[in-house]
Amino acid sequence: MSLRLTCGKPVRGILFAAFLVVPVFAPMLSHAQEKSGWIDLEKQDAAALFGEKCGMCHKAGGMGTTILSRRLQGEQALLENRLDLKAEYITAVVRTGFGVMYPISRGEVSDEQLVKIQQHLVKE
Amino acid sequence: MQLVLPPNHNESSFEAALRAFAGVVGERWVFNSDQDRDTYVDHYGFDVNAHVASAAVAPASAEEVQALVKLANEHKLPLWPISRGKNFGYGSAAPVVSGSVVLDMSRMKKIWMDVDNGTVLVEPGVGFYDLFDYVEQNNIPYWISPIGNSWGSVAGNALDRGVGYTPYGDHSDRVCGLEVVLPDGDLVRTGMGAMSNSEAWTLHPYGFGPHWDQMFMQSNFGIVTKLGMWLMPKPETVVSLDMELDKKEDLGWAIDTLAPMRRSGLIQQSPSIGNWLRAAAVLTKRTDWYNGEGAIPEDVISAIRQRFNLGWWSINLRIYGPEEITNATANVVQNTFAARTQYPMRRGLWREGMPREQQPFAGIPITFPLANAGWHGGRGAHVGFSPALPQSGDKAQAQFQRTFDRYNEFGMDYHGSFALGERHITNVNQVLYDRDNKAMVAQVDQFFRALLSDASVQRYGEYRAHIEYMDLIAQSYDFNNGALWRLNDRLKTALDPNGIVAPGKSGIWGSTPRNGGVA
């Protein structure tokens, strides 16, 4: 049983209102003697998104790489080196988990972000 | 995962609540498909059906959290706030009360840094890797204090009193100032944050009057939306001292040797003494060594230890600071051990400019240790059992033996460590199991309860709990017929009369009945 939502326009645009009362607004960290202002660490481009969302486990030394290297040869344990990954497979593993890997929610990786990550990993 | 409705809701009232939530965050940030629910289960729990969310909603700001909390009050719908939901071994993202809506703050990933003073304000979605990348890429001369499996939230970990390995490893103690959405939707800032526009919010923890930061740790009295934290200035050198201890019985004297140096401040981080399985289960699988029933026997343990040059126990400690000081300190530590044992101590020196040890000791986040969850094969899983003990070698040795015997009784492989605080020991036991092995899964609960009961007899309490056992552990804190939890419940009832924020967290229910409020 799955409920469907039917609602009106979402309310947006209050994202940065939260920070208007925070002190010190140096625009951006330029060198090590300043306070930063608020910086959003969410990444945009595909490779950086892969690093942000998947890299902790699937770059060199991560949990996923460690486990995959027990059963795959050499460089194949690194997802970014794989030639055989398919978009549907990536979606299935990300959303349902696999072995020790936990499932990743749409709160953590949105559907749009997942598409970008797939584009980064699928080599065709 | 099929929908489990929130307590006292039907489909239409639930749908009305979600529609209201969508009016705040946008429809795309309300998740209520079967697959969405699957992504918020306790993936490593032995019964994923025991604690399931009905839906999740992902706000982007404290304002949105406030609006959602107000709506949750109107709709009488419990929320289960998570930062990144990576509290593995303790319940992951799953709520105590099934049917709760997960308030997923993963998207809130902003930081604000005071470089001069080495402090950050982080939103809940900022993970250790995010903070690490930010600090390193901007050449900020501070180190973060990552945890043993670092995918989690900096704020979430500190709020659950997680620990790291540098001198700043007692994370809840390094918190300086919070912003909190109260259960009625009001917004407060603690410490100096209570003074508008104070630049000292992340510098002076107390402000004026009562200090509330700890009130929001391991509690359900509010939803933390920003957390101030101090970072450790980058040290000039780090000296590593590692020792392999050959016998199980070496634990006690090793603790008694370390403890005075920890108390005096000579050793500033929390040295950990862990057993052979910690490394073996990361590097290999159980079937590489043993296919028999029951716990791995001593002769196989010896073979594993030999292959990886491991003691039954390993001690790892680190000393940070200018080289004159780290060298002198390391000499004292080595001499102190040399007076007790012939075991060699390996000594290493890191200086600025050299490659850093790829370990949390050196401020580097890692995730590979949880490869150990694949020890049994199948869908690997683990649950943590973590009592705090007095700092005594005899007591630690006895606690180890009791625990080890229980592991053997239940046919599980012992996986434990003893980390020294300044005046106590935290004994973290990981129970590794295979979720696809029904017989193994069936006994994990009994095993856990036996460990808990043994510890409680000794009057050792857990420092942190899995969602399934929060009530049991709260009950073990039983002075004056549970007076502390009566106080917690009174506070909860006063602050959250509708039971909106994480009912059941840490055994605190307030006005919500123990069954989650099902009428």
Mean pLDDT of chain B: 95
User: In what range is the share of β-strand residues of chain A?
Assistant: under 5%
Termini Cα gap of chain B: 23 Å
Reported CATH architecture of the domain at 46-121 in chain A: Orthogonal Bundle
Q: Considering DSSP H and I runs of 4 or more, what fraction of the residues of chain A is helical? A: 25-40%
Instruction: Tell the overall outline of chain B.
Output: globular
Assigned CATH class of the largest domain in chain B: Alpha Beta
Q: Major β-sheet of chain A, in short?
A: none
Question: What descriptive keywords fit this protein?
Answer:
heterodimer, A: 124 residues, mainly alpha, Cytochrome Bc1 Complex, Chain D, domain 2, 5 helices, globular, B: 519 residues, alpha+beta, Uridine Diphospho-n-acetylenolpyruvylglucosamine Reductase, domain 2, Uridine Diphospho-n-acetylenolpyruvylglucosamine Reductase, domain 3, Vanillyl-alcohol Oxidase, Chain A, domain 3, 3 domains, nine-stranded antiparallel β-sheet, five-stranded antiparallel β-sheet, 13 helices, 20 strands, 19% strand
How is this structure best summarized?
Chain A is mainly α and 124 residues long.
Report on this model:
The complex is a heterodimer of chains A (124) and B (519). Chain A has a domain at 46-121: Cytochrome c-like domain (Cytochrome Bc1 Complex, Chain D, domain 2). The longest helix of chain A has 11 residues, at 111-121. Chain A is built from 5 helices and 1 strand. Helix content of chain A is 34%, strand content 2%. In chain A, helix 1 (46-53) crosses helix 5 (111-121). With 124 residues, chain A is mainly alpha-helical. Chain B is an alpha+beta fold and 519 residues long. Chain B has 3 domains: 1-107 and 479-519, Uridine Diphospho-n-acetylenolpyruvylglucosamine Reductase, domain 2 (2-Layer Sandwich), CATH 3.30.43; 111-233, 2-Layer Sandwich (Uridine Diphospho-n-acetylenolpyruvylglucosamine Reductase, domain 3), CATH 3.30.465; 237-464, 3-Layer(aba) Sandwich (Vanillyl-alcohol Oxidase, Chain A, domain 3). Chain B contains 13 helices and 20 strands. In chain B, the strands form 4 sheets. In chain B, strands 12, 13, 14, 15, 16, 17, 18, 19 and 20 form a 9-stranded antiparallel beta sheet that branches. Chains A and B meet through strand 1, helix 2 and helix 3 of A and helix 1, strand 1, helix 2, helix 3 and strand 5 of B. Strand 1 (39-40) of chain A pairs antiparallel with strand 5 (110-114) of chain B.
